[in-house]
Design a protein that fits this description.
Blueprint: E1 3-10, H1 14-32, E2 36-40, H2 45-48, H3 57-65, E3 68-73, H4 88-99, E4 103-109, H5 122-125, E5 129-135, E6 147-148, E7 155-156, H6 163-178, E8 183-188, H7 194-206, E9 214-219, H8 220-229, E10 236-239, H9 241-250, H10 252-255, E11 264-266, E12 271-273, H11 292-305, H12 309-324, H13 341-350
Parallel strand pairs: 1-2, 1-3, 3-12, 5-10, 8-9, 8-10
Antiparallel strand pairs: 4-5, 4-11, 6-7, 11-12
Helix pairs in contact: 1-11, 1-13, 6-7, 11-12, 12-13
This protein binds nicotinamide-adenine-dinucleotide, 3-isopropylmalic acid and manganese (II) ion.
Length: 352
Protein backbone atom coordinates (compact mmCIF):
# COMPACT_ATOMS: atom_id res chain seq x y z
CA UNK A 1 0.00 0.00 0.00
CA UNK A 2 1.27 3.46 -0.93
CA UNK A 3 1.68 6.28 1.57
CA UNK A 4 -0.09 9.42 0.38
CA UNK A 5 2.10 12.52 0.25
CA UNK A 6 0.37 15.77 -0.68
CA UNK A 7 2.64 18.31 -2.39
CA UNK A 8 1.75 22.00 -2.16
CA UNK A 9 4.32 23.86 -4.32
CA UNK A 10 2.62 27.25 -3.84
CA UNK A 11 4.31 30.43 -5.03
CA UNK A 12 7.64 31.96 -6.02
CA UNK A 13 10.49 29.51 -5.51
CA UNK A 14 8.03 27.01 -3.95
CA UNK A 15 7.59 24.85 -7.08
CA UNK A 16 11.38 24.60 -7.68
CA UNK A 17 12.27 23.60 -4.13
CA UNK A 18 9.36 21.17 -3.80
CA UNK A 19 10.37 19.53 -7.06
CA UNK A 20 13.90 19.11 -5.68
CA UNK A 21 12.61 17.56 -2.45
CA UNK A 22 10.22 15.25 -4.30
CA UNK A 23 13.11 13.88 -6.39
CA UNK A 24 15.14 13.20 -3.25
CA UNK A 25 12.15 11.59 -1.48
CA UNK A 26 11.41 9.37 -4.48
CA UNK A 27 15.01 8.21 -4.72
CA UNK A 28 15.27 7.36 -1.04
CA UNK A 29 11.85 5.69 -0.99
CA UNK A 30 12.64 3.49 -4.00
CA UNK A 31 15.82 2.32 -2.35
CA UNK A 32 13.99 1.60 0.93
CA UNK A 33 11.14 -0.29 -0.73
CA UNK A 34 8.76 2.44 0.40
CA UNK A 35 5.89 3.21 -1.95
CA UNK A 36 4.91 6.89 -2.03
CA UNK A 37 1.93 8.28 -3.99
CA UNK A 38 2.27 12.01 -4.66
CA UNK A 39 -0.73 14.25 -5.15
CA UNK A 40 -0.20 17.95 -6.01
CA UNK A 41 -2.66 20.70 -4.99
CA UNK A 42 -2.78 24.50 -5.32
CA UNK A 43 -2.45 26.88 -2.35
CA UNK A 44 -1.78 30.60 -1.93
CA UNK A 45 -1.33 32.69 -5.08
CA UNK A 46 -1.25 29.54 -7.21
CA UNK A 47 -4.84 28.87 -6.08
CA UNK A 48 -5.93 32.52 -6.45
CA UNK A 49 -4.60 32.45 -10.03
CA UNK A 50 -7.04 29.58 -10.73
CA UNK A 51 -9.97 31.63 -9.38
CA UNK A 52 -10.00 29.60 -6.14
CA UNK A 53 -9.62 30.77 -2.53
CA UNK A 54 -6.05 30.76 -1.13
CA UNK A 55 -6.89 27.48 0.65
CA UNK A 56 -9.27 25.58 -1.67
CA UNK A 57 -11.55 23.05 0.07
CA UNK A 58 -10.11 20.24 -2.09
CA UNK A 59 -6.57 21.14 -0.98
CA UNK A 60 -7.57 21.19 2.66
CA UNK A 61 -9.44 17.87 2.41
CA UNK A 62 -6.51 16.17 0.64
CA UNK A 63 -4.07 17.41 3.31
CA UNK A 64 -6.19 16.26 6.23
CA UNK A 65 -6.54 12.80 4.62
CA UNK A 66 -2.85 12.45 3.65
CA UNK A 67 -0.06 10.62 5.46
CA UNK A 68 2.06 13.80 5.26
CA UNK A 69 2.12 17.15 3.46
CA UNK A 70 5.12 18.94 1.93
CA UNK A 71 4.70 22.66 1.21
CA UNK A 72 6.98 25.08 -0.66
CA UNK A 73 5.92 28.62 0.18
CA UNK A 74 3.01 30.99 -0.29
CA UNK A 75 2.86 34.70 -1.04
CA UNK A 76 3.28 36.76 -4.18
CA UNK A 77 3.41 40.52 -4.82
CA UNK A 78 0.60 40.03 -7.34
CA UNK A 79 -1.87 39.33 -4.54
CA UNK A 80 -0.39 41.51 -1.77
CA UNK A 81 -3.20 44.08 -2.16
CA UNK A 82 -5.88 41.62 -0.98
CA UNK A 83 -7.50 42.06 2.44
CA UNK A 84 -6.17 39.76 5.17
CA UNK A 85 -9.06 37.26 4.98
CA UNK A 86 -8.32 36.33 1.37
CA UNK A 87 -4.51 36.70 1.30
CA UNK A 88 -2.10 33.89 0.39
CA UNK A 89 -0.68 33.80 3.92
CA UNK A 90 -4.16 33.35 5.41
CA UNK A 91 -4.55 30.21 3.30
CA UNK A 92 -1.47 28.74 4.96
CA UNK A 93 -2.64 29.72 8.46
CA UNK A 94 -6.03 28.07 7.78
CA UNK A 95 -4.27 24.93 6.58
CA UNK A 96 -2.21 24.72 9.79
CA UNK A 97 -5.43 25.15 11.75
CA UNK A 98 -7.35 22.54 9.72
CA UNK A 99 -4.49 20.05 10.20
CA UNK A 100 -4.26 20.84 13.92
CA UNK A 101 -0.47 21.16 13.75
CA UNK A 102 0.30 22.98 17.00
CA UNK A 103 4.03 22.25 17.37
CA UNK A 104 6.39 23.67 14.76
CA UNK A 105 9.90 22.19 14.98
CA UNK A 106 12.54 24.42 13.39
CA UNK A 107 16.05 22.95 13.69
CA UNK A 108 19.03 25.23 13.09
CA UNK A 109 22.60 24.01 12.97
CA UNK A 110 25.97 24.98 11.63
CA UNK A 111 26.88 23.44 8.27
CA UNK A 112 30.64 23.10 7.75
CA UNK A 113 31.43 24.65 4.39
CA UNK A 114 29.26 27.74 4.85
CA UNK A 115 31.88 29.68 6.84
CA UNK A 116 32.61 32.07 3.96
CA UNK A 117 29.11 33.52 4.11
CA UNK A 118 28.77 33.70 7.91
CA UNK A 119 29.19 36.73 10.16
CA UNK A 120 30.61 34.54 12.97
CA UNK A 121 34.01 33.42 14.17
CA UNK A 122 34.14 29.66 13.39
CA UNK A 123 34.76 28.70 17.06
CA UNK A 124 31.49 30.40 18.08
CA UNK A 125 29.30 28.25 15.88
CA UNK A 126 31.23 25.05 15.35
CA UNK A 127 28.91 22.26 16.52
CA UNK A 128 25.86 24.46 17.06
CA UNK A 129 22.71 22.35 16.81
CA UNK A 130 19.42 23.59 18.23
CA UNK A 131 15.69 23.20 17.64
CA UNK A 132 13.22 26.02 18.03
CA UNK A 133 9.79 24.66 18.94
CA UNK A 134 7.30 27.29 17.89
CA UNK A 135 3.68 27.17 19.11
CA UNK A 136 1.75 27.36 15.84
CA UNK A 137 -1.98 27.70 16.47
CA UNK A 138 -2.35 30.34 19.17
CA UNK A 139 -1.22 33.75 20.33
CA UNK A 140 -1.49 36.91 18.24
CA UNK A 141 -1.98 34.97 15.02
CA UNK A 142 -5.39 33.65 16.04
CA UNK A 143 -6.50 35.50 19.22
CA UNK A 144 -9.81 37.35 19.30
CA UNK A 145 -10.72 40.16 19.24
CA UNK A 146 -8.79 41.21 16.18
CA UNK A 147 -9.38 43.66 13.36
CA UNK A 148 -9.09 47.18 12.04
CA UNK A 149 -11.64 49.72 13.34
CA UNK A 150 -14.28 50.91 10.86
CA UNK A 151 -12.59 54.33 10.64
CA UNK A 152 -9.23 52.70 9.89
CA UNK A 153 -7.66 54.59 12.77
CA UNK A 154 -6.76 51.62 14.98
CA UNK A 155 -6.01 47.93 14.74
CA UNK A 156 -6.10 45.25 17.40
CA UNK A 157 -4.73 41.74 17.93
CA UNK A 158 -4.96 39.60 21.03
CA UNK A 159 -2.29 37.42 22.58
CA UNK A 160 -4.22 34.78 24.49
CA UNK A 161 -2.87 31.44 25.69
CA UNK A 162 -4.74 28.79 27.65
CA UNK A 163 -3.01 26.24 29.88
CA UNK A 164 -3.86 23.27 27.59
CA UNK A 165 -2.43 25.11 24.55
CA UNK A 166 0.82 25.73 26.42
CA UNK A 167 0.99 22.23 27.90
CA UNK A 168 0.70 20.38 24.60
CA UNK A 169 3.51 22.30 22.89
CA UNK A 170 5.70 22.34 26.00
CA UNK A 171 5.42 18.54 26.28
CA UNK A 172 6.66 18.19 22.70
CA UNK A 173 9.64 20.40 23.60
CA UNK A 174 10.43 18.53 26.84
CA UNK A 175 10.26 15.17 25.04
CA UNK A 176 12.54 16.42 22.26
CA UNK A 177 15.04 17.63 24.87
CA UNK A 178 14.98 14.22 26.54
CA UNK A 179 16.24 12.70 23.29
CA UNK A 180 18.98 15.34 22.90
CA UNK A 181 21.16 17.30 25.33
CA UNK A 182 18.32 17.52 27.91
CA UNK A 183 18.35 21.33 27.97
CA UNK A 184 15.16 23.31 27.40
CA UNK A 185 14.96 27.10 27.23
CA UNK A 186 11.48 28.62 27.39
CA UNK A 187 11.17 32.10 25.96
CA UNK A 188 8.54 34.63 26.98
CA UNK A 189 7.93 38.19 28.09
CA UNK A 190 6.59 37.31 31.55
CA UNK A 191 7.87 40.59 33.00
CA UNK A 192 5.25 42.45 30.95
CA UNK A 193 2.62 40.15 29.36
CA UNK A 194 -0.08 38.19 31.22
CA UNK A 195 -0.16 35.55 28.45
CA UNK A 196 3.56 35.00 29.13
CA UNK A 197 2.96 34.85 32.88
CA UNK A 198 0.61 31.88 32.34
CA UNK A 199 3.11 30.44 29.81
CA UNK A 200 6.00 30.51 32.29
CA UNK A 201 3.95 29.13 35.19
CA UNK A 202 2.68 26.26 33.04
CA UNK A 203 6.09 25.30 31.62
CA UNK A 204 7.60 25.48 35.12
CA UNK A 205 4.91 23.18 36.54
CA UNK A 206 5.36 20.64 33.72
CA UNK A 207 9.12 20.46 34.40
CA UNK A 208 8.35 18.17 37.38
CA UNK A 209 7.33 15.48 34.84
CA UNK A 210 10.75 15.71 33.13
CA UNK A 211 13.30 15.67 35.96
CA UNK A 212 16.11 14.74 33.55
CA UNK A 213 15.63 17.97 31.57
CA UNK A 214 17.23 21.23 32.76
CA UNK A 215 14.70 24.00 32.18
CA UNK A 216 15.62 27.67 32.01
CA UNK A 217 13.62 30.77 31.12
CA UNK A 218 14.64 33.83 29.11
CA UNK A 219 12.84 37.02 28.21
CA UNK A 220 12.50 37.28 24.45
CA UNK A 221 14.56 40.46 24.15
CA UNK A 222 17.54 38.96 25.98
CA UNK A 223 17.06 35.66 24.13
CA UNK A 224 17.32 37.32 20.74
CA UNK A 225 20.79 38.54 21.69
CA UNK A 226 22.00 35.37 23.47
CA UNK A 227 20.89 33.02 20.68
CA UNK A 228 23.36 34.75 18.38
CA UNK A 229 26.09 35.53 20.91
CA UNK A 230 26.23 32.08 22.57
CA UNK A 231 24.40 29.73 20.20
CA UNK A 232 26.26 26.70 21.61
CA UNK A 233 24.42 27.16 24.92
CA UNK A 234 21.08 26.24 23.34
CA UNK A 235 19.58 22.80 22.73
CA UNK A 236 15.76 22.99 22.56
CA UNK A 237 14.00 26.35 22.66
CA UNK A 238 10.22 26.71 23.08
CA UNK A 239 8.32 29.91 22.37
CA UNK A 240 4.87 31.21 21.56
CA UNK A 241 3.83 31.71 17.93
CA UNK A 242 5.16 35.20 17.04
CA UNK A 243 8.31 34.98 19.18
CA UNK A 244 9.04 31.61 17.56
CA UNK A 245 8.42 33.00 14.07
CA UNK A 246 10.95 35.78 14.63
CA UNK A 247 13.59 33.80 16.53
CA UNK A 248 13.57 30.90 14.06
CA UNK A 249 14.45 33.28 11.20
CA UNK A 250 17.09 34.91 13.43
CA UNK A 251 18.91 31.63 14.07
CA UNK A 252 18.97 31.20 10.28
CA UNK A 253 22.02 33.47 10.52
CA UNK A 254 23.83 30.55 12.21
CA UNK A 255 23.03 28.21 9.33
CA UNK A 256 24.05 30.97 6.93
CA UNK A 257 20.83 31.31 4.96
CA UNK A 258 17.09 31.06 5.41
CA UNK A 259 17.33 28.64 2.50
CA UNK A 260 18.94 26.03 4.77
CA UNK A 261 16.21 25.88 7.41
CA UNK A 262 13.62 23.06 7.42
CA UNK A 263 10.54 22.70 9.57
CA UNK A 264 8.05 20.10 10.74
CA UNK A 265 4.60 21.04 12.03
CA UNK A 266 3.09 18.29 14.14
CA UNK A 267 -0.27 17.58 15.76
CA UNK A 268 -2.47 14.52 16.21
CA UNK A 269 -2.91 13.90 12.46
CA UNK A 270 -0.61 14.14 9.43
CA UNK A 271 2.44 16.38 9.68
CA UNK A 272 3.02 19.49 7.55
CA UNK A 273 6.59 19.97 6.35
CA UNK A 274 7.87 23.23 4.90
CA UNK A 275 11.06 25.24 4.67
CA UNK A 276 11.17 28.20 7.05
CA UNK A 277 11.73 30.64 4.18
CA UNK A 278 9.05 32.29 2.09
CA UNK A 279 8.42 32.50 -1.65
CA UNK A 280 11.52 34.68 -2.33
CA UNK A 281 9.82 36.23 -5.39
CA UNK A 282 13.01 37.85 -6.74
CA UNK A 283 14.66 34.41 -7.05
CA UNK A 284 11.69 32.57 -8.58
CA UNK A 285 12.13 30.78 -11.89
CA UNK A 286 15.89 31.46 -12.07
CA UNK A 287 17.18 28.12 -10.75
CA UNK A 288 19.12 29.94 -7.99
CA UNK A 289 17.06 29.17 -4.86
CA UNK A 290 18.62 26.95 -2.22
CA UNK A 291 16.50 23.76 -2.07
CA UNK A 292 18.23 22.43 1.07
CA UNK A 293 15.55 23.72 3.49
CA UNK A 294 12.87 21.80 1.59
CA UNK A 295 15.04 18.70 1.05
CA UNK A 296 15.74 18.70 4.81
CA UNK A 297 12.00 19.14 5.44
CA UNK A 298 11.48 15.96 3.41
CA UNK A 299 13.96 14.27 5.76
CA UNK A 300 11.88 15.47 8.73
CA UNK A 301 8.79 14.04 6.97
CA UNK A 302 10.48 10.64 6.78
CA UNK A 303 11.55 10.88 10.43
CA UNK A 304 8.37 12.13 12.08
CA UNK A 305 5.48 11.01 9.85
CA UNK A 306 6.84 7.87 8.17
CA UNK A 307 9.11 6.72 11.05
CA UNK A 308 12.01 6.11 8.65
CA UNK A 309 14.90 7.41 10.74
CA UNK A 310 17.62 5.79 8.63
CA UNK A 311 16.27 7.32 5.41
CA UNK A 312 15.96 10.74 7.07
CA UNK A 313 19.52 10.60 8.34
CA UNK A 314 20.77 9.51 4.92
CA UNK A 315 19.30 12.66 3.33
CA UNK A 316 20.79 14.88 6.06
CA UNK A 317 24.22 13.30 5.58
CA UNK A 318 24.03 13.79 1.80
CA UNK A 319 23.19 17.49 2.22
CA UNK A 320 25.97 17.88 4.79
CA UNK A 321 28.49 16.15 2.52
CA UNK A 322 27.55 18.24 -0.53
CA UNK A 323 27.96 21.52 1.36
CA UNK A 324 31.17 20.36 3.02
CA UNK A 325 32.59 19.48 -0.40
CA UNK A 326 31.88 23.00 -1.65
CA UNK A 327 28.64 22.43 -3.56
CA UNK A 328 26.84 25.59 -2.51
CA UNK A 329 24.03 27.73 -3.84
CA UNK A 330 24.77 31.44 -4.15
CA UNK A 331 23.20 32.36 -0.76
CA UNK A 332 25.89 30.39 1.12
CA UNK A 333 28.77 30.45 -1.35
CA UNK A 334 30.27 33.73 -0.15
CA UNK A 335 32.85 34.83 -2.72
CA UNK A 336 33.33 31.22 -3.88
CA UNK A 337 31.79 29.42 -6.86
CA UNK A 338 28.10 28.54 -6.70
CA UNK A 339 25.68 26.12 -8.31
CA UNK A 340 21.97 26.39 -9.08
CA UNK A 341 18.98 24.74 -7.42
CA UNK A 342 18.96 21.78 -9.81
CA UNK A 343 22.73 21.18 -9.67
CA UNK A 344 22.64 21.26 -5.86
CA UNK A 345 19.83 18.70 -5.91
CA UNK A 346 21.81 16.49 -8.31
CA UNK A 347 24.78 16.70 -5.94
CA UNK A 348 22.59 15.56 -3.03
CA UNK A 349 21.13 12.70 -5.11
CA UNK A 350 24.66 11.59 -6.02
CA UNK A 351 25.58 11.38 -2.33
CA UNK A 352 22.52 9.53 -1.04
P1 LIG B 1 11.55 35.17 2.17
O1 LIG B 1 11.86 34.10 3.11
O2 LIG B 1 10.81 34.80 0.93
O3 LIG B 1 12.92 35.90 1.73
C1 LIG B 1 13.79 36.49 2.70
C2 LIG B 1 15.22 36.53 2.12
O4 LIG B 1 15.76 35.21 2.06
C3 LIG B 1 15.28 37.07 0.69
O5 LIG B 1 16.49 37.77 0.54
C4 LIG B 1 15.28 35.81 -0.14
O6 LIG B 1 15.88 35.99 -1.40
C5 LIG B 1 16.10 34.86 0.74
N1 LIG B 1 15.68 33.47 0.54
C6 LIG B 1 14.52 32.92 0.91
N2 LIG B 1 14.45 31.64 0.54
C7 LIG B 1 15.61 31.36 -0.08
C8 LIG B 1 16.14 30.19 -0.69
N3 LIG B 1 15.47 29.04 -0.74
N4 LIG B 1 17.38 30.27 -1.24
C9 LIG B 1 18.09 31.41 -1.20
N5 LIG B 1 17.64 32.54 -0.63
C10 LIG B 1 16.41 32.52 -0.07
O7 LIG B 1 10.75 36.28 2.99
P2 LIG B 1 10.06 37.66 2.53
O8 LIG B 1 10.80 38.26 1.41
O9 LIG B 1 9.86 38.41 3.77
O10 LIG B 1 8.62 37.23 2.01
C11 LIG B 1 8.32 36.91 0.65
C12 LIG B 1 6.91 36.32 0.58
O11 LIG B 1 6.93 35.03 1.21
C13 LIG B 1 5.84 37.13 1.31
O12 LIG B 1 4.66 37.04 0.53
C14 LIG B 1 5.67 36.40 2.64
O13 LIG B 1 4.41 36.58 3.20
C15 LIG B 1 5.88 34.98 2.20
N6 LIG B 1 6.34 34.06 3.26
C16 LIG B 1 5.81 32.79 3.21
C17 LIG B 1 6.26 31.83 4.10
C18 LIG B 1 5.68 30.47 4.01
O14 LIG B 1 5.07 30.11 3.02
N7 LIG B 1 5.86 29.62 5.01
C19 LIG B 1 7.26 32.15 5.02
C20 LIG B 1 7.79 33.45 5.04
C21 LIG B 1 7.31 34.40 4.14
C1 LIG C 1 6.43 31.27 8.42
C2 LIG C 1 5.78 32.46 7.76
C3 LIG C 1 4.29 32.47 8.03
C4 LIG C 1 4.10 32.67 9.52
C5 LIG C 1 3.44 33.49 7.24
C6 LIG C 1 3.72 33.44 5.78
C7 LIG C 1 1.99 33.29 7.51
O1 LIG C 1 6.41 33.65 8.15
O2 LIG C 1 6.04 30.14 8.10
O3 LIG C 1 7.31 31.46 9.25
O4 LIG C 1 4.15 33.81 10.01
O5 LIG C 1 3.89 31.67 10.21
MN1 LIG D 1 8.23 33.31 9.37
Amino acid sequence: MSLRIVLLPGDGVGPEVVDAARTVLTTVATRDGLSLAFDTHPIGGAALDLGLPSLPDATRDACVAADAVLLGAVGTPKWDHLPRETRCETGLLRLRQAMGVFANLRPARHWPGTEDSLPFKPERIDGVDMIVVRELLGGLYFGEPRGVAADGQSGVNTMRYTVPEIERVARVAFELAQGRQKKLTSIDKANVLEASQVWRATVTRLAADYPDVTLSHLYVDAASMLLIQYPKDFDVVVAENLFGDILSDEVGAIAGSLGLLPSASLGAGPGLYEPVHGSAPTLAGKDVANPAGTILSAALLLRHSLKREAAAARIERAVEQAIREGVRTVDVAGAGPSVGCRAFTEAVLARL
